[in-house]
Each structure stands twice: as C-alpha cells, then as structure tokens.
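Protocol step 4 of 6: structure prediction from sequence.
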Amino acid sequence: IVGESRLTAEDIANSVQQIFSFIHASATM
C-alpha cells in the first residue's frame, strides 16, 4: 500500500490473527 509506512496496533493484531488462523487451519489438515 503506497503511503502507508506504519501500522496501527489494530492492523498488527489483525495480521497476527490471520497468520495464527492460517497456521491452525494448516496444522489441522
């Protein structure tokens, strides 16, 4: 994303949640 050089706490939390969700989904396959 152009112009977005910093992430808010909410953005980081959302990204982390998606990553953990993806890992959990992959692990349960």
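Step 5 (inspection) to follow. The chain has a mean pLDDT of 86.
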